Structure formats: C-alpha cells, structure tokens
Amino acid sequence: MSDTERIGILFNETRDAALLLKAARRRHPDARLVAILSPRAAVRFPARDLVDEIVEVELSPLRLLIRGAFFQMVEVLRKQRFDLLVLRFPTLKLRLLAALVAPMRCEIWLAGGVIVPTPTTPGAAVRGYFQRRFTGVKMMARIWCNVWCSRIPRRQGRAGGDAS
C-alpha cells in the first residue's frame, strides 16, 4: 500500500470544482484527489483533468431512499478508505454521512478559504443532530408559551378597540 494521502471531495455541487481542486492540490501536493459525484454530475464534471479518480455514487437522498441503496453507497465510500473527506457544505446530513463513511479526518471547506475540521465519530454527529433538534423544540415551546401564556390581555371584539 502506498503512502500517498487519499482525499475524497464530495461534490454535491460542481460550480466551483476547478477552484476547489486547485486549492486542494496546493494544500496537499502529493495527495491522490478523488472526486465523489452523482452519475448525472459525473457526465458534465468540468474539472475531470484535475482529479486522479472519480467515484460515482448516488447522492440524492430521495433516490437513495426510493431505491433502498443508502447503505450500499456508504459501503462504497467506506471501501475507499479516505485519509481526508472534504465536504462543501456544513449540513447535518453530510456530517452524518461522513460519520458513517468513517474517514481518518473530515473537513468542511467553506467559501473564502475557511476550513473547519469536523469530528468523524458517530457519537459527535448524533450529538449534533440531537442538539439541533432540542434547539428547535425549545424555540417552538418558547413561541407557544409567548402566544398562549402572554401577559398582555387579549382584546375582545373587533380589531382596533374594545367592544363596549
């Protein structure tokens, strides 16, 4: 097995692919860059000459659920044994996917050159999910409480004044 670092870059959008791949090549000059694309995006991928390998897997959550192929896709990506998995967007779904793929490291590359390391353990991804869910539930409870338990008396009758 070679010592070269394998970097998988998940392209759920290919608009700035060339810029991202050039930045990855500058940051990791000896690495093997692997583009992870959906089959539809792979056909028209603009930066085919900048990557060493292309892995085509279905990335649409709806298509994965309809076909029941989610865990097959995870297995394909897990077999790649990435040293670094690069995500383009900090969504919870992508971070959960990264936790299932289990690369050595995972980073989120945001616009403007911001790189955010993200934990790849399943526990950290699940904890992030439940923290966001709890925050949403707490916000909805606060809104409900403000509406129904407000200390401001409600006016009777028509809007604009009391019915007298």
Keywords for this entry:
164 residues, alpha/beta, Rossmann fold, 2 domains, six-stranded mixed sheet
Helix content: 40-55%
CATH architecture of the largest domain: 3-Layer(aba) Sandwich
CATH class of the largest domain: Alpha Beta
What is the count of DSSP helices, taking H or I runs of 4+ residues?
A: 6
Uncertain ranges: none
Question: What do we call the CATH topology of the largest domain?
Answer: Rossmann fold
Shape: elongated
Largest sheet: 6 strands, mixed
How many distinct beta strands? 6
What's the order of the H and E elements?
EHEHEHHEHEEH
Average pLDDT value?
A: 81
Q: What number of structural domains do the residues give?
A: 2
User: What would you report as the Rg, rounded to the nearest angstrom?
Assistant: 23 Å
Content of β-strand: 15-25%
Question: Which class do the helix and strand fractions yield?
Answer: alpha/beta
Alpha-carbon distance between the two ends: 87 Å
Strand arrangement across the biggest beta sheet: 3-2-1-4-5-6
> What is the fourth-level CATH superfamily of the largest domain?
Glycogen Phosphorylase B
